[in-house]
């Protein structure tokens, strides 16, 4: 499904060959991205210093619902490391614990023994001051809960009335050691989304919505997969941009990734934009299935053709799908080459 189709006589004969090419394509895509930028794909963790590691982890666990995962240390720090990282020469070893609350980045909690650095929390307007925001489904209920735990709230929740963050409610609170944290919620989205921006911010809200009811299963039936694959063809033949995106939400995961030999498209808007461009260049062409859909557990392959009524097989190829939680999370596109 590309706008440029190179000619050759090679075709993919087996699923093993297809999978091998898939791995080569994926590796090549990652390598290409890394050549043009650092290759950052997301925030892994946020680090914070605390005066007492055990008390801090207890607060994160018992009050905020985090789970401790890994621990390092105590690790002695040599003089050169302290100098390089602006650590007081008299400060002792560091102990680090990584904690996690489900979706999004983890928090790396640091405690320095015999800490000789400043023990005062930075003021909000000090350079280096920061906060961590946690998404909640119901901010009113969350605030009520924090108050029941005697957590200090810095005001009451405020809902943004207009602008890019219209519909977002937020409130700050303090940890027992004085660090500022935030609760945030936007169950109906944010104002900027209504303008159909090129980029939509990632949000744990999307993951929470998919997990509502906790009834998700990684395994779906063969008939369900085949139905979704047929709907995939409907998406690629739909002429109306909005109808196409509405269909995508029923078939593709919000974080769906489409890997082609020349590019990678992520999410509804990027894939929708590519389809729109393809249809404008081939107004009288359509996609159709040329073989039965093959299903193997949570993967499937679809052999297709694309062309006009006079020449329906002008271009042929195969799409390989990976399903999770009832939707397509990966789509690998293979276009046959002809002489």
From TrEMBL:
Organism, as annotated? Flavobacterium chungbukense
Q: Name one Pfam family in it.
A: Glyoxalase
InterPro entries to which the protein is assigned, alphabetical = Glyas_Bleomycin-R_OHBP_Dase (IPR029068), Glyas_Fos-R_dOase_dom (IPR004360), MMCE/EMCE_epimerase (IPR051785), NTF2-like_dom_sf (IPR032710), VOC_core (IPR037523)
- The answer to keyword ATP-binding applying to this record is no
Per its record, how is this protein called by name? VOC domain-containing protein
Q: What is the lineage of its organism?
A: Bacteria, Pseudomonadati, Bacteroidota, Flavobacteriia, Flavobacteriales
Q: Which residues form the VOC domain?
A: 42-186
Lineage top rank: taxon? Bacteria
Q: Which UniProt keywords apply?
A: Metal-binding, Signal
Q: Where is the signal peptide?
A: 1-33
């Amino acid at each position: 499904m590309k706008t440029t189709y190179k000619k050759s006589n090679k075709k993919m004969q087996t699923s093993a060959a297809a999978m091998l090419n898939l791995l080569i394509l994926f590796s090549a895509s990652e390598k290409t991205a890394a050549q043009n930028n650092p290759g950052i794909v997301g925030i892994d963790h946020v680090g914070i210093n605390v005066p007492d590691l055990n008390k801090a982890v207890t607060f994160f666990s018992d009050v905020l619902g985090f789970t401790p995962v890994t621990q390092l240390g105590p690790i002695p720090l040599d003089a050169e490391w302290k100098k390089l990282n602006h650590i007081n020469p008299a400060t002792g070893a560091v102990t680090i614990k990584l904690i996690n609350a489900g979706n999004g980045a983890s928090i790396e909690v640091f405690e320095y023994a015999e800490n000789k650095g400043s023990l005062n929390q930075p003021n909000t307007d000090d350079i280096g001051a920061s906060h961590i925001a946690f998404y909640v489904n119901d901010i009113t209920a969350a605030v009520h809960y924090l108050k029941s735990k005697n957590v200090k709230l810095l005001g009451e929740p405020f809902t943004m009335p207009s602008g890019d963050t219209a519909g977002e409610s937020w409130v700050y609170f303090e940890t027992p050691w004085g660090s500022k944290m935030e609760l945030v919620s936007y169950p109906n989205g944010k104002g900027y989304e209504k303008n159909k921006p090129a980029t939509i911010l990632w949000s744990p809200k999307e993951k929470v919505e998919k997990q509502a009811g906790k009834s998700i299963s990684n395994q779906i039936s063969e008939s369900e997969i085949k139905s979704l694959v047929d709907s995939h063809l409907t998406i690629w033949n739909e002429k109306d941009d909005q109808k196409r995106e509405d269909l995508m939400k029923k078939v593709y995961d919000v974080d769906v990734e489409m890997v082609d030999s020349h590019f990678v498209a992520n999410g509804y808007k990027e894939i929708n934009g590519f389809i729109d461009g393809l249809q404008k260049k081939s107004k009288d062409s359509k996609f159709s299935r040329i073989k039965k859909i093959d299903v193997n557990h949570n993967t499937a392959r679809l052999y297709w053709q694309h062309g006009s009524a006079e020449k329906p097989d002008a271009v042929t190829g195969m799409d390989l799908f990976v399903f999770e939680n009832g939707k397509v999370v990966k789509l690998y596109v293979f276009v046959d080459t002809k002489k």
